Amino acid sequence: MKFIVKLFPEITIKSRPVRKRLIQRLGTNLDVMLRRVDEGIRVKTTWDRIDVHCGDGNEVLRDEVVSVLSRTPGIQAFLEVREFPLVDFHDAYERTRDAYAELLKGRTFKVRVKRSGKHDFTSVEMERYIGGGLNQHTEAAGVDVHNPDLYVDVEIQQDRLFIVTERHPGLGGFPLGTQEPVLSLISGGFDSVVASYMTMRRGCKTHFVFFNLGGHAHEIGVKQVALYLWQKYGSSARVKFITVPFEEVVGEILQSVHHSHMGVILKRMMLRAAERVADFMKIDALVTGESIAQVSSQTLPNLAIIDQVTKKLVIRPLVTMDKQEIVDLSKSIGTFEFAKGMPEYCGVISDRPTTRAKLDRVLEEEGHFDYEVLEQALKRVQVIAIDDIVEDVNAHATVEALTRVGENQIIVDIRANHEQEKKPLNMPGCEILSIPFFKLGTAAEQFDADKEYLLYCEKGVMSQMQAHQLQERGYSNVKVYRPEGA
Ligand code: ATP
Ligand code: MG
């Protein structure tokens, strides 16, 4: 089985050396990720495309390769092809007919031939030959060059013939790691997660910084969604997840700052701290999920005041997007359910916040703030490699995780439906409820107080977070099930 990977068009308009560097990086990224799928997969990088070969006839493998290619930044589209030696027009027609006859039944079509290399025929001549043959010898509804139901795509590269059996859209963007790294302020809501995705897609290795305002479940939730993003779109490069304990900073703001200015000043404190972390990591740019006027601290005057505390470039990928567009994007990248279920933790709920902060007033308010508190927070920063999140969450778990199921205990499988179907829990004799994590909040209301409910998910991270949240809501009979060796 073979795939032809087409480059994101912005790569192809770069100068020769830049283009070469970008393509090579894309090749390496694919190599890293596809080797995890199967050792035997081969990635071949050329000037204008990347070829991926994997073993024939293995549908599971094929699906996994399609999945990797469709979420790797830097790819415009990729074609699934059958490869043959180029013999002559008639042979090419017969091969095309074998691949397309079924699909063509009752539909109009147009043949497209793309050619590279030297040949003594033109692409149009070949299109006519194959098209004529298909029109006569299949049950197609005829040729329609303007608005066909189906395109029949054929590629010729030197002496090889490729029949395209499927065309998949890619993610676009630049290969990860070809642009400089950024540090994304992630709070786990819809916005900052989508913003992080956007810088990843644009080719920036995106590290995460989280300001912990005091909710343990919130911290686990943010780690969980960062891990998801990274595994899905960015796992060719290792990144860091940094937690800054911010409870005391919030406490100090509550004591020393007028309520109307708390929101803006909290953001300024976050940027100050993020700048220090970024300095240490030699990163020039910070990312936030803010967009004009979405909330009171995000009006243009306030954003301008917030920006003044840092010399770093502050990138706001969502700045002109509407909330609905952001939510739609979060659905399409798969982070919607995470964000929806994120425990809200807002330490600074200010009453009638200013929408038009003035610098002199802000400085006056900050004059009462004890910066030693911020320094102390920065001394207690925790840095972990993102791929260690699972171990980290389990090591710091606060909800008891049981390795066995006893009497009066019910397993609750909280994985998404498609994951449950893919890897069903096989536990004869146990009662198992299937409640995807985003339905757990309401489903828990029906729980029987005399029984114990053990939440199960694949890595033990989501179950830990959800159990923690439910316990905080008073469900002390909710725990985690984590089988030995999982
Ligand atoms: P989000 O949907 O990303 O939570 P929001 O709409 O709730 O954002 P704010 O709470 O004003 O907006 O936060 C604005 C931005 O500041 C966020 O998008 C994020 O980049 C950053 N931010 C806010 N809280 C935190 C936090 N606890 N840790 C890290 N970054 C944060
Ligand atoms: Mg928020």
From TrEMBL:
The reaction(s) this protein catalyses: [ThiI sulfur-carrier protein]-S-sulfanyl-L-cysteine + a uridine in tRNA + 2 reduced [2Fe-2S]-[ferredoxin] + ATP + H(+) = [ThiI sulfur-carrier protein]-L-cysteine + a 4-thiouridine in tRNA + 2 oxidized [2Fe-2S]-[ferredoxin] + AMP + diphosphate; [ThiS sulfur-carrier protein]-C-terminal Gly-Gly-AMP + S-sulfanyl-L-cysteinyl-[cysteine desulfurase] + AH2 = [ThiS sulfur-carrier protein]-C-terminal-Gly-aminoethanethioate + L-cysteinyl-[cysteine desulfurase] + A + AMP + 2 H(+)
Matching InterPro entries: Rhodanese-like_dom (IPR001763), Rhodanese-like_dom_sf (IPR036873), Rossmann-like_a/b/a_fold (IPR014729), ThiI_AANH (IPR020536), ThiI_fer (IPR054173), ThiI_N (IPR049961), THII_Thiazole_biosynth_dom (IPR026340), THUMP_dom (IPR004114)
Protein name: tRNA sulfurtransferase
Family the entry assigns: Belongs to the ThiI family.
Name of the coding gene: thiI
Function, in words: Catalyzes the ATP-dependent transfer of a sulfur to tRNA to produce 4-thiouridine in position 8 of tRNAs, which functions as a near-UV photosensor. Also catalyzes the transfer of sulfur to the sulfur carrier protein ThiS, forming ThiS-thiocarboxylate. This is a step in the synthesis of thiazole, in the thiamine biosynthesis pathway. The sulfur is donated as persulfide by IscS.
Residue ranges of every copy of the THUMP domain listed in the record: 63-167
Single GO MF annotation: tRNA-uracil-4 sulfurtransferase activity
Residues forming the catalytic site: C457
